């Protein structure tokens, strides 16, 4: 069956009407004036289908043929002008496929955010130079300044003992060379401790006052050491920031500087995920056990902490300080670890 076609010679804009047919591997053009042209099919290129627009054939002499889409063309040019384009067209023609691919993209995005992003963040955090960790930590401290940290009022002797015991505990641990305890008086945030990406571990006088013993303080410090060993600060900041960077790429506002600015703010706002808390807890229990100390001290400190809600945390969302709140699960896990440690020791 011949198809009505419009032909252009490629040199002028003149259009000639013709009938298009195919026989014995040749494409035939029968013009209205009786002229006949023949081209071997393999020498003719067909442009991929694009929605409902006419199909375009490219002739070897530079001429062009425009023809309404037809199943005939499918038979003459089985590969349809390109595999990828053919796929795109196939998808375009099927609503369910469109919906399916939209869902696929959505699922891939969710999967990436949930699994790919944490993986990327960990890889990036592991390659983060210490100078960046220091820089980010400085900015976090500057942001925390409005919480009015004062020099610690706790007797120097107790601080020295704690510091010494802590250093003994983490000796030989990965990244322990960077770890340093900073004692502060912080009435506004109350009993708290937190690790900065550069290895500084802040602990408040209020936590030392609340603790029933230095063992309990040490248990909390072990947990903070876990955050540092696993680079949780940088990892969660990168994970959170990456969402914004991706959003920036998608919506056209991506710059490295916005990442540098967003890291400390993000870190402060979002804090650690539950997964990070669990990981730091597990690290602490193991570290304590390896030094003959019971994770029970961690459970009792958690209980004390759960009884207080610091003023600053009620005032605003400072996730960095508020993700630590003890949960019944964490206390139960510590007690379980203590039982396991007790059973394991002679
Ligand atoms: Zn924590």
Automatic annotation (TrEMBL):
Record bears the keyword Secreted: no
UniProt-listed GO biological process terms: proteolysis involved in protein catabolic process
Pfam families named among the record's database cross-references: DUF7092, Peptidase_M48
Co-factor requirement: Zn(2+)
Gene Ontology CC terms, in alphabetical order: membrane
Domain of life according to the entry: Bacteria
Record's keyword annotation contains Signal: no
InterPro entries referenced in this protein's UniProt entry, alphabetically: DUF7092 (IPR055518), Mito/Outer_Membr_Metalloprot (IPR051156), Peptidase_M48 (IPR001915)
Swiss-Prot/TrEMBL keywords: Hydrolase, Metal-binding, Metalloprotease, Protease, Zinc
GO MF annotation, one: metal ion binding
Residues in DUF7092 domain copies: 3-78
Residues covered by the Peptidase M48 domain: 159-336
Cofactor note: Binds 1 zinc ion per subunit.
Family, as annotated: Belongs to the peptidase M48 family.
Designated name of the protein: M48 family metallopeptidase
Organism classification: Bacteria, Pseudomonadati, Pseudomonadota, Gammaproteobacteria, Lysobacterales
